[in-house]
Every structure is written in C-alpha cells, then in structure tokens.
Design brief:
The strands form 2 sheets. This protein has a two-stranded antiparallel ribbon with strand order 1-2. Strands 3-4 form a two-stranded antiparallel sheet. It contains 1 helix and 4 strands, in the order E-E-E-E-H. About 10% of the residues lie in helices and about 45% in strands. The chain has one domain. The protein has about 60 residues and is mainly beta. The protein is elongated.
C-alpha cells in the first residue's frame, strides 16, 4: 500500500516506506445516559497521527512516562 501527502507548496509526495509514520493509534466508544433514562451508544472511533516520530513527540497531547 502506498500513502501520499501534499506539502506546503501543494506538491503531492509519496510517504517513505522506510519511515514509521503512524503513531498514537487508539479507539474510543461508549454510551451516553440521557435525561429520559435511556442510553445512546457512541460509535467506535479510530484515531491516529501521521508524521515522523519527532513530529509526534511535539504534537501528542500527553507524554508517556
């Protein structure tokens, strides 16, 4: 599988295959309780960051201990 991105100049470039580019993969889902006593399911969501490890280290919302 090949992945592409568009740089700041608008040029499409291929993501290098030899560089780890996907970080912080997580899923969330759940249920919300409503005032009428019923509950509503929240669909599962997949989240991840695409960038170099250095970019991820700067951008992530929390740091690992």
């Amino acid at each position: 599988m090949r992945f592409y991105y568009v740089d700041k100049k608008g040029t499409q470039k291929e993501v290098p295959a030899n560089v780890e580019m996907i970080h912080g993969v997580s899923t969330t889902s759940g249920t919300i309780g409503k005032a009428d006593g019923k509950s509503e399911n929240i669909a599962e969501k997949l989240s991840f960051y695409v960038g170099t490890k250095e970019q991820w280290d700067q951008a992530r919302p929390y740091k690992e201990l």
